[in-house]
Structure formats: structure tokens, C-alpha cells
Queue: 3 jobs
Job 1
Amino acid sequence: MGLFDKFKNGLLKTAQELTGNLQFFLQGTTQLSKQTLKELEEGLVRADVGSMTARAIAKEVETAVKNDTTSERVSVVQHLRKAVLEKLLKVHVSDDLPKPVIILLIGVNGAGKTTTAGKLAAHFSSEGRTVLLAAADTFRAAAEEQLMEWAQRAKVQLIRGAHGAAPSSIVFDALKSGISQGADCMVVDTAGRLHNRSNLMEELKKIVRVAEKAAPGVHQEKWLVLDANTGQNALNQAKEFHKEVGLTGLILTKIDGTAKGGIVVALAGELGLPVRYLGVGEQVEDLIAFDPQMFVEALIPNTAAYSS
Ligand SMILES: Nc1nc2c(ncn2[C@@H]2O[C@H](COP(=O)(O)OP(=O)(O)O)[C@@H](O)[C@H]2O)c(=O)[nH]1
Ligand SMILES: [Mg+2]
């Protein structure tokens, strides 16, 4: 499947929510009435763009349409596409990472950290990197086994700790070993934690500090893995984690099963953090590097205002 088709399939439900709605109320309208504008904003909110960002986008569209002398139906959609794209481009970073790089995956239970660790390992390995997976989730007995399966699938090395070892000590040993072996991409899977549990947040900060000590000067990424179904709660989660450890990116998982994919726009608009990857399924290939243009094209196709 081509990259764009992956975007399109992954965002199908969100697009139906948003664009299906656009088609309905933009049909036959030649101007952007107050009512249409309100419906546009509501459509964005329903797709989980968030009330603040939805309002901002609606305002931008209103201004753009006013200033556009050729304001026909289709141009409303064009202006909408442009407004959404601008929000995403503002925070976008390319997926070129330095070598070596350490990637810490953090987030709450069930968000998709371990699955994403496995997918990322396969992805970077296919780019010719020497990848190492570190199993720092010592909380659940099955967690290591699950990561082990992913390591085998991705054909990369897995480093795990001795029974009962502290997560930070596993991270220390894994990164030391990775650096000495010349690994250039070290992906660390951590235990699920709630942002409002202070002992778990302290443990996370310790993991970050220890990673810096084990591999001084090595570029460190701290990616929060978020379940897209969480909707607006994802915003709060991200804010809290960001405050505690200074995130460098986000991964939105389970985009395939939700109509709440607009959360990507909310995260960009309200947090200023880039989405790095989208999880669009449970298989190893179901991970896509985030691309703002493709995202907008999949969410609000150019043809939205024409087809009936
Ligand atoms: N549909 C779908 N399921 C996913 C995705 N990512 C993870 N999952 C599923 O979500 C569940 C929890 O994933 P897991 O990686 O164990 O979460 P963790 O607790 O954060 O490590 C598993 O059943 C995964 O197969 C995704 O992008 N799409
Ligand atoms: Mg896990």
C-alpha cells in the first residue's frame, strides 16, 4: 500500500466525520454565512480538533473568504485546508534523526508504547540503522515477552534486565552496551504511568537523567505515545508529561479505529508539539511518519465541496 493510501485508510473515520459533514452543509452555498461558519466550527470540534483550535481555524477561514474576491464554494474548502495545514506546518519537524539517537517512549498503560517500540525498531532497521530495543517496563510480567516478540519480528537486539532490576538501571546498562556496540538507534520501552502519580513521574525523570549519564551527549528524543481514542484527554496528558520531562514529540496510535483524528490538529495548535508518527493498526507496517500535506489531503480532500 502506498503511503498516501495508508493516511487515507487510517483517517477514514475522522474524514467521514469531518468531510461528510462539510459536503452536507457546503452544498449549494456560495457564501460563508454565519450559520455555515458555525457548522464548520462544530464539525471540527466533532472531529476532536478542540474548541480553541476549531475557533481559531474558523476565524481564519472567515477572514480568508472575506478577502477572497473569488469566494465560491470550493474556495471555502481550500481556505480550510490552508488553515489546518498552517497549524501543522508550524510545529512540524522532519523525521531525519541524528546517529546515534536514543528514543524514550512514554505514556499511560495501553497507549501502544510496546507495539510502537516494535514498529519503530523495524522502521529504523529497514533504513539501515543498527537498532537496539531496551525493555524497561518491569512493571508487568508479560511486557518483556511482548517486546521480545517484536524484537524477533524486527530482527533487532533486545536488552532486558535481571529479574527485579530497577527500570533506570536497565536503561543505563542497555544504553552503555548499545553505545559500545555501535548501535545508532536505541529505542526504550517504559512502563505505563499516569501523569498525576508523582512517584511514577519521579521514576521517569530518573530514567531521563540516567540515559543522559549512560550516553553523554547522545541526542535524546522523548516521545509521548497517545491513544487517539482518548480525544481531548490526550491534550491534558500531553501538557502534564511535557511539563515534567520536556517532550520532543508525540505518537498518536489507533488512528485507524477512531473518528477523533482531529486531535492531531489540537495538539499542534495548543501544545506546539509535533506529531512524529501515526499508528494505524497492529501490524509491524502500520506506522507512518507524519506528513502534514498528506494528512490534510486525507482529511479534507480537494474534492470535498464537489461530490454529492
Ligand atoms: N488498531 C490499533 N491498535 C493498536 C495500535 N497500537 C497499539 N495497538 C493495540 O493496543 C493494545 C495496547 O498496546 P501496547 O503496545 O501493549 O500498549 P502499552 O501498554 O502502551 O505498551 C494492543 O492490543 C495493541 O495491539 C494502533 O496503531 N492501531
Ligand atoms: Mg507496554
Job 2
Amino acid sequence: MAVHNCVERDLQGWGVTDHPPDHPPDFFDRADPGPDAQFYAPDRFVTHIDPGAIAAVGALYEELGLGDPGRAGGDVLDLMSSWVSHFRVAPARLVALGMNANELAANPQAASWLVHDLNVDPVLPFADASFDAATCCVSVDYLTRPVEVFREVARVLRPGGAFAVTISNRCFPTKAIRAWLHTGDAGHVDIVDGYFRAAGGFTEPVAQLRTPPESRGDPLWAVWATREA
Ligand SMILES: C[S@@+](CC[C@H](N)C(=O)[O-])C[C@H]1O[C@@H](n2cnc3c(N)ncnc32)[C@H](O)[C@@H]1O
């Protein structure tokens, strides 16, 4: 399955720049409304962003101290994961959650993994305050119930724990939500920022372009916030 660049249009009609508490009904429509389990059944041992963007993800995690027991803490949940989690140094305990068992089982940084469809069930099968950090790399555009998922992330994070969401400009277009396909980089950042705000339980989100502005490679944006005390 090819990974295409997302189409850039404007935000008119969705009002995402206003961080609405309620998203319009067609915001989360997808060209392929079929089961994610079917779409993600074939193994894809590929990287979804280029080496520069991958390095930017690792640098962000290291800067935030994610997975480091001496800094932000060692218990990390990687949401929408696959065979790579992009940490420069593997967290003390990484739980990888995704859709493809073969990919997850091959993740060398994961201490454990589980297949869990967040669009079918956004409830995370973990106790309250059981992780020091959570990550979601180049995948948030596939969530059809993101506010519920972000609320769940806040629940399973310990106070002060960061949720780092990274995004680029490639996607599986039939599985990305309609609003994502109709917006560009700034709109994508706004969408994720809005998810944090709508979910509640997080501090003010921070958004940054993590790859050099002049880079010709895949851009890597990060939006993160920490669990309120
Ligand atoms: C573009 S890949 C990114 C994988 C990985 N995060 C990375 O950085 O290489 C999208 C990932 O989202 C996961 N995913 C897609 N839909 C999902 C869903 N409904 N629930 C959980 N994970 C999902 C897939 O398993 C897939 O691994």
C-alpha cells in the first residue's frame, strides 16, 4: 500500500483553528470506513517517515527524557506502534499498542505489546496512573475517536507525564480522517492541539517543528502536553 502526501486545502468549514469542543459530524469520516483490523492485517515492515524525521522523533524523546528512569521516568506507552518506536535508547519499560501482531512482536524496544483497535474501543486496558509518558508517532490522523483516546491517555499517565504526538505530511489517505486530508501542516498541528484541549487533564500543549525549516525531507512536527497534577 502506497503512502501518499496529504492534500492541502484550507480549514474553512471545520473551524479547527477555534479548537471547537464539538467536531462536525463529517470531521472524522474516512474514505475507507471498513475495519482497521482488515487494513492493517498485512505486515508492513517499512518506515513511514525518512531518516531525518525519524532522528527528530528520537531527539524529541531524549530531550523530554521519555523512558529515562532518572529523568521523566521509565514506563512508556507507545500508541499506534509497529516494529519501530524511534527511541535513541529503549525505555526501561515500553508497552507498544498497535494493530499488527507481527510488527509489534518484532519491535526490539518493546518489553510487551498488544493489539488493540482504538477506533473500536478507545478505552486503554491499563490502570490509572500506570505510565510516566506516552507517545504516538505519525498515526494520530487515523483516530476517529481521538478525544476519548486522549482522555484515556490522561487517565493512564502519572501526574507530570508527557504525551508526545508527532506528525508529518504522509499518510494512508483512505484511512486518514477527512479533516486531516483537507488541511496542511498548520491545520494538522491545530487539530492535535484541539484534541488535547477537548480531552482535558493536560497542561497547555506545546507545538514545534522539529526538523530544520529549510529541510527538503519529511517535516516532523511535535505537539505535546503533560498530565496535570
Ligand atoms: C503510519 S503507521 C506508524 C507506525 C509507528 N508509529 C511508526 O512510527 O512507524 C500507523 C500505525 O497506526 C496503527 N493504527 C492504525 N489504526 C489504528 C487503530 N484503530 N488502533 C490502534 N492502532 C492503529 C497501525 O497499526 C500502524 O502501525
Job 3
Amino acid sequence: MKRRDLLTGLAVSVLAVGCGQGVPARPQGRAARYGKPVALPAPAIDGPVSLEQAIERRRSRRSFLPDPLPVAAIGQLLWAGQGITSADGKRTAPSAGALYPLELYVVTSTDVMHYLPQGHRAEIRPGTGVRPALQAAALGQAPVGAAPGIIVVAAVPARTQAKYGTRAGAFVELEAGHAAQNILLTAAARGLAAVPVGSFDQAQAAAALALPAGQTVLYLIPVGLAST
Ligand SMILES: Cc1cc2nc3c(=O)[nH]c(=O)nc-3n(C[C@H](O)[C@H](O)[C@H](O)COP(=O)(O)O)c2cc1C
């Protein structure tokens, strides 16, 4: 069986939970916006290639098949970014003071999924208009409008500011880099196309996602099945 068939075969209909009706005008209460959390498939802790091969293969790839991302792949990427890997709550990516300011989202053509590291779950809300709004925020960049999934690395800097004051901004951005690299290497290891996108208007991106006040967008990672 080809790798693409394998991935597609793993697809579960979690993403079909919502059928979006566009971006809310402004953030509403969490319960009003997101559905009940759903469990993601357990992440694999081995893979098809070695870490060294994944590092060697990683390349920014901007062309995607239109096929939806299988939920197993989404779960694997989110786990790589912020999954909990120890009994005391520590995660796949390091965090200054273990304060964990990052929040991960996945935007699809129809929904917005918010990752809940506790229990490796996600809460999902409809959002048909979010992907084009994110593309507009990213200066119209084509991969943002075309990727079947855009992983959004967002942050609540106040979580880190309480302890680290003026260093917090840098720390939070460094952490976003750690999480993003884990995600990019996981994509490379699993034959997925992905590209880190840093050129976007932060206020516009936060509005597109209807993020709560105090939460900011640091990175967009369009990802999908590779088209070549
Ligand atoms: C902080 C940062 C921001 C980036 N922003 C964008 C972007 O907005 N759009 C894009 O297509 N690529 C973006 N890239 C990807 C770079 O263009 C890419 O990493 C570079 O050309 C090297 O190629 P490689 O990633 O294949 O090694 C960004 C990379 C980094 C590290």
C-alpha cells in the first residue's frame, strides 16, 4: 500500500464534527465556540525514518494535494508540538520555567481545532471562513489558502511574563521555534509537505482565529499530503 493510501486510510471523521459558517465577528465564550473535546488517536512513538533522516529530509514544501489531512496525522503533528510526555505534565518541546505559554490550533477548510495537551484531545468549532482570512493576514500567500491543514502556533505571553518579565517575549518566541521544528520534522518523517510561515499580520491573524484577548499568533505551518 502506498504511503498516501496508508495515511488516508487512517482518516477518522473527527473533523466532520463541525460544518463551518465563517469567522465570528469577535471572540465569544469558549463553551459557545467549541464543541465537547474529542480524543485524538494515540501518537506513535516510533516512525518510518530515523531522526537523522527526518532532519536530512526536512525542506519547506508549499504544494499540497487537496485531500483532507487524516486525523491520525493531525494528532501526531500536534503531539510533536505540545504533547505531554511525562507524568508531571512536561511536554515534547521545552518551556522556560515549564510554564507552557503555547496554544496550538489546526485550521482546515471547514473547522478550527484547538489542541488540549491534557489527555491528547481537541475541541473543534466550525470555521469555513478562517482559512481564507488567515491567507489574507499572510499577505495572500498561496500555501496558507491551499493547505488542507494550517497548524497555528499561538501563545499567551502572560503565562511566561509573570516569572520572566522583559525576557518573556523572547522566551515565548524561542518556544514557538522549538514546537515548530518538532512539527516540521514530524511532517518530514511522515512524508507530509509543510512550510513555516512567519510573514503575516499578527492582529489580523488573531482576529481571523477569533483568539481570546491576550493570545497572539507566532507561526503558521501549512501542512498536507505532498503533491509530488
Ligand atoms: C522565521 C521564518 C519565517 C518564514 N516565513 C515564511 C513565509 O512567510 N513564507 C514562506 O513561504 N516561507 C517562509 N519561511 C520558510 C523559508 O523561506 C525557508 O525556510 C527557507 O527558504 C529555507 O528553505 P528550507 O526551509 O527548505 O530549508 C520562513 C522560515 C522561517 C525560519
